[in-house]
Amino acid sequence: MPPLDSDFALVADILQLKKEKKAVILAHNYQLGEVQDVADFVGDSLELSQKAARTDADTIVFCGVHFMAETAAIICPDKTVLFPEPHAGCPMANMITPADLRKKKKEHPGATVVCYVNTTAAVKAESDVCCTSANAVKVVQSLPSGEEIIFVPDQYLGGWVAEQTGREMILWPGYCPTHARILAQDITRRKQEHPKAKVLVHPECRPEAKALADAVLSTGGMTRYARESDQQEMILGTEIGIIHRLQKENPGKRFYPVSEQAVCPRMKLITLDTILWSLQNDRHIIRIPETVRSKARRAVDRMLELG
Ligand code: 13P
Ligand code: SF4
């Protein structure tokens, strides 16, 4: 849909206010197209935390889901992290609480806890090292062999990492409701429709879906694959918001979603209006108690140090 005149006015106001406040807008690859287009940087969870760590802006407007904005606030205690929509939480991140994790750790004393970045700050604070889908294999490979590992909360990402690394891991039974909608039969159907297309699947998908993929990649990995490979057609097994970016960066190539139903509703709550409102009113500032933040930071820093 072409942008409306009112969108141009909103964008102009956002850009003006952003300049006055020395703010930077970071957006995840699943955000609405209009949000991606107004952002200074669009990326996957790892790229966004690396960007937050390096920015010299005073304020970060974080367009994604809550744990992503929290991660920026964990890394940047001296900056104001604004989150335009407080209800935009990731359901998978809410599938484990700090009390759940403490109980699990008691059952396995001495185990190393690897937490997916899709967790609350309080769960990160109970963990030893964080990971994203882009570096989970590398993070687990960095742990001494023989060490017992608890991986939370994504059973599908965890199962895939265990397979890739040959490490046994205790998995938490969490999952992403959006990626769980991407079924093997949908991939098979799309492959029949587009026989030349390569299939790229996110590690949060079910194992049967990943088994049909040509490559299993984070959303950032998918954007690189689309840019660097000679493939002209790709089938995407992930949230459909990424297609806006892929199409924009690769106008000559064709991208098909495995399933039109792979929508993360919480990711779509942030709009141009809420970004402007956020900048105008300094809402909602992400605040994390220092005791939690400093412990969570250790787990996030250990991941970032791996590069
Ligand atoms: P990426 O880090 O691959 O962007 O994934 C984040 C996410 O929440 C996927 O559902
Ligand atoms: Fe969470 Fe899934 Fe949405 Fe990613 S797509 S933010 S894992 S619910």
Outline:
The chain is α/β, with parallel strands linked by helices. The protein has helices at 5-20, 33-38, 45-54, 66-75, 98-107, 121-125, 136-141, 155-165, 184-193, 207-210, 219-228, 242-249, 272-281, 290-305, and strands spanning 23-28, 41-43, 59-63, 80-82, 112-116, 129-131, 149-152, 170-171, 198-201, 215-216, 233-237, 254-257.
Small molecules bound in the structure, each named once = 1,3-dihydroxyacetonephosphate, iron/sulfur cluster
Spans of 5+ residues with little confidence (pLDDT < 50)? Answer: none
Q: What letter string, H or E per element, gives the SSE order?
A: HEHEHEHEHEHEHEHEHEHEHEHEHH
Compute the CA-based radius of gyration.
Answer: 19 Å
Query: Alpha-carbon distance between the termini?
Result: 39 Å
Strand order of the largest sheet: 2-1-3-4
Task: Give a structural overview.
It is built from 14 helices and twelve strands. It has 307 residues and is of the alpha/beta class. The strands form three sheets. Strands 2-1-3-4 form a four-stranded parallel β-sheet, sandwiched between helices. The protein has a four-stranded parallel β-sheet with strand order 6-5-7-8. Strands 10-9-11-12 form a four-stranded parallel β-sheet, with helices on both faces. The radius of gyration is 19 Å and the shape is globular. The mean pLDDT is 97. Bound molecules: 1,3-dihydroxyacetonephosphate and iron/sulfur cluster. Iron/sulfur cluster binds at residues 65, 90-92, 118, 176-179, 204, 239, 264, 266-267.
